[in-house]
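Hi F.,

I've been meaning to write this up properly since the lab meeting, where we talked about keeping a consistent format for the predictions we share between groups. The idea is simple: the sequence comes first, exactly as it goes in, then the C-alpha cells exactly as they come out, then a line or two of notes. No screenshots and no reformatting. I'm using this chain as the first example so we have something concrete to point to.
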Amino acid sequence: MILPIVAYGDPVLRKETEDISSDYPKLDELIENMFETMYGARGIGLAAPQIGLPIRLFIVDATPFEDDEDLTENEREVAATFKKVFINAQMIEEVGDVWAFNEGCLSIPDVNEDIFRRPKITMEYYDENFEKHTQTFTGIVARIIQHEYDHIEGVLFTDKLSPLKKRLIKKKLANISKGKIDIGYRMKFPMAKKKR
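Output, unedited:
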C-alpha cells in the first residue's frame, strides 16, 4: 500500500525516534509498504518519520545508480544490487574527506542542493529478520545511508546548508509545508488548509 509522505514542516520529521523490537506490530507489512511508497515516488531511500512514524527504521535501494556515469565502475557495481532495510541503526564511524553531491528528499520535493558528507561510514544495524550487522559502506551507498540515517536523528539535508542557501530556499520550504507544490506522489502537508 502506498502511504502519504510527510512534507517539510511536520514535527514528526524532527522527533527523536525510538528503537523497535522484533515484535513490532505488522513490521513486514510496514517494510513492504515503505518500499512500495518509495518506488511510487521514484525515491532511493525512505525513513519511517517520512511516513509519520518516529521509529528507527529506514530503507535504501541504490539500484537506480547502476547506470550513473558520474560514479566509478565499482560504485555502479555495488549500487546495482544494493537494497537494504536498516532497523535501530547506529552510526559507528564516518571517515574521509568530505565530498559534495546534489541531494534531494521526498519530504522536500523540488529542492536539490549540494551536500557535503564523508565517503566512508561504519554502521551497526538490524536487518528485516532482526539479524545484527556491523558493516562499512563507501561512496554513493554511504551517502544514501547517511541521508536516511539523518532522518531517524531528526535531521534534514537542508539543515546542512549555509545560512545564505537556507535564506534562498525559505519561501520554497514554506510553500512545501502549505501544500503549494505540484508533485507526482501522495503527500501529507502540515500546514495545508483543510477543504470544508
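Notes:
The two ends are 27 Å apart (CA to CA).
The first strand starts at residue 5 and ends at 6.

If this format works for you, I'll send the rest the same way.

G.
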